[in-house]
Write a structure and sequence with these properties.
The chain contains five helices and four strands. It is of the alpha+beta class. A four-stranded antiparallel beta sheet has the order 1-4-3-2, sandwiched between helices.
Amino acid sequence: MKLILALSVLISFNTFGDERNDVATSFMKALQKELMMGMKKGPKAGLIHCNDKAMPVTNSFNNDKYEVGRVSLKLRNPSNKPSEELKRALLDYSSSSAKNKMDAKVILLSNKEEVFVKPLYMKGACLNCHGANLSAGVKNELKKRYPSDEAIGYKLGDFRGLVWVKKR
């Protein structure tokens, strides 16, 4: 009887983990879709479009079932500052890269809440606004919109941050 109970708990936990992974993946795809729509008019337009659409996309995934977000050690938007617990998760992932990926995982917060975290790695289009060689138009727009921007200087495949999903 104990084995059956343990297996049912494990199965429900894995299903829940998969569900959060699906939410995180859908969220990442929705953000990428918005970025690519803006990039059709160039990197500066992509930055502006992404800035205008990132929060509405995020809010569309926050509902009575889930809360989602993004965090990084190198902040662009100060409102995305990680909690100390998410900062530890970011540090755990910081040595990974697209060539040396780490899997998504569930972390347990001190308040006993579980948070699913999935790493973000830099892709080619991301470097237009997060790379080392930014156009003058992008640099100026970043200074205007994010005066304290730290989220630049990345290379292809670098670890960028985490998408997180919490069940409400």
